[in-house]
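Appendix B, record 7
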Amino acid sequence: MVTLSLPMRQALTFRSFPIYSAISSNRRNRVAIFSCASGDPGQRDRNLRRRRKVVEHICLLKANKYLSYDQEKDMLDYLYTSQYQMRGIVAVSLGQISGQTKEDFTHAVFMRFQSKEDLTKFYENPFYLQVLKEHVVPNCHSSRLDASLQGLMNVDYESEVEDDILPIFRKGEDFNYGIEFVLLIVFVEAAISGPAEDALTSLQELTMEFPCLIVQCTQGSNFNFSSEDYTHGVVIRFRSREAFEIFFTSSRYRDGILGEMMQVSANIA
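Structure tokens (predicted):
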């Protein structure tokens, strides 16, 4: 897999990193898309359309240091093709993490499900368990006390997207290219019901103002007890590497949203 030559975006209180989608190896020059103005009225109208609930699943992996190209490809291929072996998975995106994370995760897998029930069945599916046992766990390592985790961490949350087949299934021209940005947050308990939600709302509203940079953004409260240290997750699909850079170096994010989140986030050891 090809990694981005970008520095990791990391504050003291949360992790964030871009990953390539498995279907995004063909990179196009899309400089022209950045000429559109923020706050496009047509985009605001689209944001007001009927919404559909979806369940987002994030799996972070710690691959072995000396993992070969063929071993990596085998592991990611099996994870990606899991969607064809079981019902309920509506979209998959995976790849190698750009830069370094504090906990040394190397790869990330994003899956979208229609419901929590489908996600539960996924975790229990014999084919998926076999993929983990034969193709994932042997290629990963764990630095945690619980050796059964074997370098895997899962975060799950419920969110909403536009109630249309293309955004739900992440299909169409907009999803053919780009990078994923995954943000895991630890909010202090006292702030979760108030300031934390306000910060997430501000982030969501800001992403909606830049359709020229961002294809889709989802966020929600983590309900996976195995990773309860993280309270919330965010996944943003950017149109390109350049779009990613423009958004996160903008003053509205750097001086506004980022500071707002840091004020209500807990430190991570």
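Remarks on this record: Residues 71 and 139 are 7 Å apart (CA to CA). The first strand starts at residue 14 and ends at 20.
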